[in-house]
Give the backbone structure.
Amino acid sequence: MPSRAASASWPDFVLGFCISSLTALAWLSLWWWGQSPSGHLLMHGARHVAQGAGNVWYYGAMVVAGWTLMTVAMMLPTATPLLLMFRRMVSAKTNGGVLVGLVVLGYLSVWAVFGIAVQLANRAAQAIPGSADISGTWLPSTVILAAAGVYQFTPLKYACLDKCRTPLSFLMSRWQGRSELAEAFRLGIDHGLFCVGCCWSLMLLMFVVEMGNLGWMLLLGIIMAVEKNFAWGRRISAPLGIVLLGWAAVEVWRGVA
């Protein structure tokens, strides 16, 4: 019978391998989906929403599935430092793997709820009379770009980034080890909420470039990982905001020219 220490051991490289495998599988799934006849379900425009009007539940399920895959591909890697640190905190526990899994589940659940809310808002907006005409213009993308640019300078953005960049203090303030399963899930939810607070505006840029665009997904994923996990990542926040506002201005110029 293996000792408690041996059975509880779950080295960092195993967790890293699991995260890498899930991430790679999500990227591969998105690529395959984008090449399939159902690739339009990864898009957001009025024409794509109209294509799903015949089967609302199927369309909704597929859109949520696409958003969840995108979340795993783009956002799960950014939570790796916290997950590794938490793994070390619970390494002596026989259910350490389960606890880490619950943190991941809580984290992804928050992003899934955010994605559902965004998709419902998008569908409601597309249902407004005349919205089909507006969605094909420069206005929606300009609003998203301008909102993302402005948010880069807000105190809330920096407060959420500070929480994400200090995983040890984040864990110490939330992990008591009393009701382990519930605490682990709640810890994932809390981290997900701060992560959404950091990155929601950048994730909405996928409505500008389309959710199935893997190149933009990769670029945005790298930017968000740098912002969240590196001390010097704060230095790119303001320049990124300027770039986004400049992009919005270009969209306006192109739209009215």
